[in-house]
Amino acid sequence: MQAVVKEENPVLGQPLKRVEDPKFITGTGLFADDIPLPDVLHSVFVRSLYAHARIKRVDVTEALKQPAVKLVITGQDLLNRVNKMPTVGEGGDTKPTDRPILPVDEVNFAGEAVALVVADDVYSAEDASELVQVEYESLPAVVDMERAASPDSPRVHEYLKDNIGYRSTKSSGDVVKAFREADHVIKLQQEFPRLSAVPMEPRNVIAAYEEASGFLTVWLSTQAPHEAREGIAGILKLPETKVRVIAPDMGGGFGQKAAVFPEYAAVCFAAMKLGRSVKWVETRGENLTASSHGRGQKQFIEAAVRKDGRILGLKARIICNGGAYSDWDFSMPDITIGMAPGVYDIPAFKAEAMTVFTNEPPIGAYRGAGRPEATYLIERTVDVIARRLKLDPVKVRLKNYVPKSRFPYKSAGGNTYDSGDYEGNLRRALELSRYDELRGFQREARAKGRLVGIGVVTYVEVCGFGPDLPQTASVAVSRHGRVTVTVGTNPHGQGHSTPFAQIVAQELGVDLSDIVVLYGDTAAIPWGTITAGSRSAVVGGSAVLLASRKIREKMSRIAAKMMGLRGDRMIFRDGKIFSGTSSKSLPFAEVAKTAYSPQSLPPGMEATLYEYCAYAPLGNAFPFGTHVTMVEVDRGTGIIKILKYVAVDDVGKVLNPLIVEGQVHGGVLQGVSQALLEQMVYDENGQPLTATLSDYLIPSTDTAPLIETYRTETPSPLNPLGVKGVGEAGTIAATPAIVNAVEDALSPLEAVIEKIPLTPNYVWSLINQKTETIGEPRPS
Q1: Residue 343: exposed, middle, or buried by beta-carbon count in 10 A (0-12, 13-18, 19+)?
Q2: Distances in Å between the alpha carbon of 309 and those of 232, 299, 305, 389, 424?
Q3: How many DSSP H helices and E strands does the chain contain?
Q4: Do 610 and 474 form a contact (C-beta atoms < 8 A)?
Q5: DSSP annotation of 312
Q6: What is the pLDDT of residues 259-304, one digit of tens each?
Q7: What is the pLDDT of residues 598-628, one digit of tens each?
Q8: Are 672 and 644 in contact (CB under 8 A)?
Q9: Alpha helices in 53-191 (DSSP H)
Q10: CA–CA separation, 404 vs 544, rounded Å?
Q11: Is the dihedral of CA 582, 583, 587, 591 positive or negative?
Q12: Is 361:324 a contact under the CB 8 Å cutoff?
């Protein structure tokens, strides 16, 4: 009797340890600052002390006299020699701004780079930078985003008629009717401070130029090597074929390293001018004050609701602090208003968003990029509705969820959600968190005068961003049967090597030890797109899968010919290729070797095993989940303690549970930190008051809660893996979950939270003052 060969290899879905971790654990990773280039020069930027000022004079005479200094570059040196920073072009919704690599006439935020000093060592460059004399004429600084939006505000850019750089609106249903028929109108406002990504490794760049060939090689800590190549080549007026970008190991990115910054172009220009390698490694202070910031929004919401908690309509107005210069991130609040309806079936919706210019660093992507703001908007609103109407927040959610039967679902925000089961996920979260027991504990604690609260959040986010932004992968099998996977996506901590190898192992039936995954080099694969938006598995992983299937198809035809079979289906397992209908099999390596022998191949087949895929899904993916947390607030100090945190996420099919769990843990911690600690603070003159990690607080072990992670599984029908994305889930859910819990704890005091972070001082002030309630019943 013929033995039955199982078709599936038990690889995908297994909690395998990350293959890339040993080098990081042992400290042998290769980061940009570790690259041992001979005779490399070091550079330091001279930065503006003013948030807004005209540049009257830049004198580099004394700096150039220093023996170790090789070059000093100012904006004047770059005029007509390089292009300006790419900006949003005419015809779009965002107003374009004029941004030189180094400013010539005006600085627009404190910390903006004004000159570059290159020297033999970083200490000499630092000393010489202090000798560069810049004469400024101070101009009024615009810091507050609401003030910036007003017609009488000073302008950040005199050539624009106002500070409004972007507008967007979305609407659906009859909003006027919804508010006319409502029993209650709930009004609230929310404020998100600006945040810094604070990656463990700040920004950095090394550039080496070969004058004979005109070839520029750039080592860059970037989430998008191919896009960085395009950007740098465009600024320096080089063909992109003459620029190679290599991304070494990265110590975090979180969206901040997705952009091409002026500093990168300036360092590359210096390397081309000197004909020597030039390095720049950002200081922590520079990273906090001169790199991009995330968030920074004020949100004004009105909800029309029935007395039973059913939401009839929602109105939202959003102002975003865009900073000094515009690019695609200026449209960030458009993502927010698109996802503002969240998991709820809201019949009528109207939202408007604007991004304003201020004299602060430009806005950039930060983990979640518009989605955390949207979830915060709607999930805080639902809790306020429940509290004002004295209803259970869980029951209000259940009354408004999009039902499972209505997927795919076109939301009021204009997005089509691929699949979902919000009620099932919530009920699982209530069960696993023992929600009823938590409420019992809360009642007992309150009877003793303790301020204990419970927060519940159900989020949905948009991931993948693939229909217009494909991702690439190639799979090659050597003569000896070993597999090289090269991907256009580039990790900055996610652990791409392991799940991508698992995909290939599942398809080709080979051992993980015979698979190597390469990334981060524009010379290794011709094209790739950004690593962001929780899209690596959805789009990048699907590209790996489809390229592997092309290899599988070719090897199946070769194996069939070798076995003397025609049209037989082949099964790849345990390093062999089996016939699906007979007892015949061949070692995988033997078939691979045959693939390189033209005389042994089926007619018309090329010798070699190499396949490439650029994958674009039909639509985006929409992961979701429910997080439940319990906190206690100290009456005397306002300090918040997290007593319990349970996350039940639905990210579609899971490639590797260990990696999913790690992503949730990291995301939750960043979301908790946003709720409790982090904020960039500027004074009225635009001077940063949180310029060091002594002032800008990030979480430590005493902040981190014990996070219980669980999952439900609702596959996406829009990609071949059925995955949805997990990189941003925790960050999106955690902030409103914590804030809902704290406001629940303070509910006996009728406190209303309007801003974050929930610093002890702010919470203490809420405990010790009466706050007006909102959402009074409409007069009959």
Answers
A1: buried
A2: 53, 22, 6, 7, 20
A3: 20, 28
A4: yes
A5: E
A6: 999 999 999 999 999 999 999 999 999 999 999 999 999 999 999 9
A7: 999 999 999 999 999 999 999 999 999 999 9
A8: no
A9: 61-64, 75-78, 122-129, 145-149, 175-181
A10: 31
A11: negative
A12: yes
**HSE-up (13 A, CA, CB side) for residue 2:** 11
Query: Which tokens belong to 597?
Result: 């022998």
The DSSP 8-state label assigned to residue 749 in this structure reads: G
pLDDT at residue 8 in the model: 59
Looking up tokens 């042992």 gives 26
- Tokens 């090789």 appear where? 70
**Partners of residue 278 on adjacent β-strands:** 41, 207
DSSP 504-560: HHHHH---GGGEEEE-SBTTTSS------TT-IIIIIIHHHHHHHHHHHHHHHHHHH
- pLDDT tens-digit readout, 404-458: 999 999 999 999 999 999 999 999 999 999 999 999 999 999 999 999 999 999 9
Nearest 5°: the CA angle 146, 150, 151 is 165
- 3-state helix, strand and coil shares in percent for the chain, rounded to the nearest 5: 30, 25, 45
Q: CA 605, CA 556: separation in Å to the nearest integer?
A: 12
Residue length of the chain: 780
Indicate the SS3 state at residue 709.
strand
Under 8 Å between Cβ of 22 and 99:
no
The residue type found at 633 is V
Q: Which amino acid, 754?
A: E
